[in-house]
């Protein structure tokens, strides 16, 4: 399946989604004078030169979930990433690191097991946001004790990253206090600044009947709407998805536990049955490439989705292919 999109932008992202996560390569505005100046201003706050870089999104490990895969997909992700010929700058975990439980001490044990496995990643920086299974029962207290704040922002090589928490209030919302913080955070930047927002739930009404939404997502998107170069990464839905809303591109990552079916093709929200002969079935490859468009200031983005079984596209071989020099 291919989707051609036109978008203006100084933030160029080439992404590839495998069963172990989504790999992104970022060119922060280096192709235009205005975009380059914005990227340099962002980079000056960290002392980092605005150069191309890669990062990986992982989501929905659900450590502690009583399923046949257990933690094997998460461990495979760590092994694969550590074997990449080019070490990514960042790892972003977009929630549901664990599966919740009301047993005393058990949730903390699951969170620490996740921390132990993910701690084997040989990458410079790892960032997390909670999912409802991490923070829904205690308002995010355990998550904060282990990983720190549930929402925050940082700059990296000319790109501004924003972590949003839309799960810790025992309902799917960001909330007034966090929206006020977001407005203040964004006010520091010009409207052309490249932004990457990462959160757990979709910030738009993808399928409210399946709980795939954020109740105040429209208000969050209104804050992001003036900005011309916004990429939103999320998890929660356990399947690949892409939506364009105004100047923003929204990408969902596949999970590291189980997959959900296409809600347009089934009535009931139930995980896709496990196939013991193909344990990573329904985990696949997503390639996003970007080339200059014919109109000034417009880029053409082509997204190609390829469904592959993990055992057919495993180890570092797939990432080696994906890390070949870009042709755009």
| CATH structural architecture | 4-Layer Sandwich
Radius of gyration: 19 Å
Number of strands: 14
Number of DSSP helices? 8
**CATH fold title:** Purple Acid Phosphatase, chain A, domain 2
Q: Please tell me the overall pLDDT.
A: 78
Biggest β-sheet: strands ordered side by side in the sheet: 1-14-13-2-3-4-5-6
Give the number of domains. 1
Give start-end ranges of low-pLDDT stretches: 1-10, 283-328
Chain oligomer state: single chain
What percentage of amino acids are in beta strands? 25-35%
N-to-C order of helices and strands:
EEEHEHEHEHHEEHEHEEEEEH
The name of the CATH superfamily reads: Metallo-dependent phosphatases
How far apart are the termini? 20 Å
The largest sheet, given as strand count, sense and whether it forms a barrel, is: 8 strands, mixed
User: What is the CATH C-level name?
Assistant: Alpha Beta
Could you say which overall geometry the principal axes of the C-alpha atoms support?
globular
What is the compact description of this entry?
The protein has eight helices and 14 strands.
Give an overview of the whole structure:
It is a single chain. This protein has 328 residues and is of the alpha/beta class. It has one domain: Metallo-dependent phosphatases (Purple Acid Phosphatase, chain A, domain 2, 4-Layer Sandwich). Helix content is 22%, strand content 27%. The protein has helices at 33-44, 72-82, 106-118, 132-135, 141-147, 176-186, 217-224, 317-322, and strands spanning 2-8, 11-18, 21-28, 53-58, 90-94, 125-129, 152-156, 159-163, 194-198, 229-234, 241-245, 248-252, 285-292, 298-306. The strands form two sheets. Strands 1-14-13-2-3-4-5-6 form an eight-stranded mixed β-sheet. The chain has a six-stranded mixed β-sheet with strand order 7-8-9-10-12-11. Mean pLDDT is 78; it is low at 1-10 and 283-328.
